[in-house]
């Protein structure tokens, strides 16, 4: 995406700030409360969204060198991502072809071979079976047909997407809808990976609603950073992915009175960027730009979720910047755990209480409205029609 498009969005925020207005959509959206706790509905969301779509499971800065890998378990699916000796990123089910044992524990590291802890079958970074313990005694087997099971993987803009279902035919370009080009302006590939922490929450949509909502910021966060924030928001969409811009002095102030030709690119990427269905990206200026990339997954039941906060720093690593990241991590854990997710758990109880039949999303909450429309559309769409759905959209505006 060209700088011109970044400028267009920033100018839109500058104009909205001058007018004192946020974005207003046509009507209120009503979502049945059972969508937040019904078991059958939740299982459909897991199967038809999280197990069919590319998910953000890693970052280039975690796995730069050949042989570097990250193993994670997502929704009971063990995944192994590894940088091959040829520099390509690959993803596999972290499952030995012999008896199904997990090859390596969850975590990051570097390896030239992955050896099963059960019977010592070994695989290279391309996923090929290269060694069978006591092969002559085991019997004839074609190694070329017994490598690791591959998963669709795409690496763009310093982010690694993996689809949990082997042999998925979803066209990734249709899914990205050009959003990967927008994300390149953050230069995540040049960051260093500074740390992570996990926070438990309520239903995944209760949590994600908050990431798409500036309406609550000055209220819920009144004792932390809320007093400096506006409840107003503008929304930009690329298919199901969204950017929320805050038309307030804090964000547009550095641009006011400056010729557009001199607007610094790093000041044009403000706001919250979301990657459907489970990522929120926020940035902070603290001894250089720190990114918090929140990675949200459904938990073991409809009323549970887990969020992993990943922290990336744009500057060269040094002790002062490490200290700034630690401080930011502590602060964001408190804000999300004690303000956002504590409230979310209370919301979960309220929704199940029977007090109301619907959740309301106002005309000023266009981001959450678009999110819920995409969730429903994906539940209603068969595999063969997925790419067409992403290409066409669900009626919401899109770049």
Q: What proportion of the residues is helical, as a percent range?
A: 25-40%
Strand content: 25-35%
CATH architecture of the largest domain: Alpha-Beta Complex
Spatially, the strands of the biggest sheet line up as 12-18-17-16-15-14-13
- The secondary structure category is alpha+beta
* Topology, number of strands: 19
Report on this structure.
- This protein is of the alpha+beta class and 399 residues long.
- The chain has two domains: 3-53 and 187-392, Alpha-Beta Complex (Naphthalene 1,2-dioxygenase Alpha Subunit, Chain A, domain 1), CATH 3.90.380.10; 56-169, Rieske [2Fe-2S] iron-sulphur domain (Rieske Iron-sulfur Protein, 3-layer Sandwich), CATH 2.102.10.10.
- 29% of the residues lie in helices and 26% in strands.
- The protein contains eleven helices and 19 strands.
- The strands form five sheets. A seven-stranded antiparallel β-sheet has the order 12-18-17-16-15-14-13. Strands 5-4-3-6 form a four-stranded antiparallel β-sheet, with no helix packed on it. It has a three-stranded antiparallel β-sheet with strand order 2-11-10, with no helix packed on it.
- Strand 17 and strand 18 form a beta hairpin.
- The longest helix is centred in the last third of the chain and has 34 residues, at 319-352.
- The chain is globular, with a radius of gyration of 22 Å.
- The termini are close together.
- The relative contact order is 0.17.
- The model has no long low-confidence stretch (mean pLDDT 95).
